[in-house]
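Hey, I'm writing a tutorial for new members on how sequence and structure tokens pair up, and I'd like a real worked example in the thread rather than a made-up one. If someone can provide the structure for the chain below, I'll link this post from the tutorial.
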Amino acid sequence: MSNASFSKHIRQRRKILTNKERANFALMASLYLPKLLPHLPKNANVGLYLDDFGELPTAPILAFCQKHGFTPFLPITVQGKPLCFAPIVLPLAKTPLKRHRLGMKEPFAKHDISADKLDLIICPLVAVDGSGNRLGMGGGFYDRTFANFCGLKIGWCYHFQVVDSLTVNEWDKGVDMVITDKGVIRF
């Protein structure tokens, strides 16, 4: 199966989940977030995204950041460039958001930082394999960002998105670990 048809299959599988199922999977995955604490400094800067296309809900990550005094940041896209990040004002409703050209929510940024100022980036993905290779959402933003990022790179997904192997290209950048509803997988 090609990556394009596989991507379509996974997206459809995510789409059929009910909101209640998504919330339950996110709650189960959130139980593994404390395993990140030994890897993060006090007052860590955490990059994350807002789920909007059937991904595993990211609200538990925001709650985790708030509980531990971490500053959450959302990505800002500029075509052909690595992501930059803007801080989130909690509660999230206080952060003005817009949709970028690919449809994901991002902040109206008055102040942003480069990824190298983050300790951790939690990224979306369509699939991840047993070696940490990720099939992204198709824009290449995380691949460009991860090319020079030295912090911790984590995929946040449903366990059914973890597969044996993926076809990768030289520009594809993987993750260090993935957190799913069934546990943490380190690569």
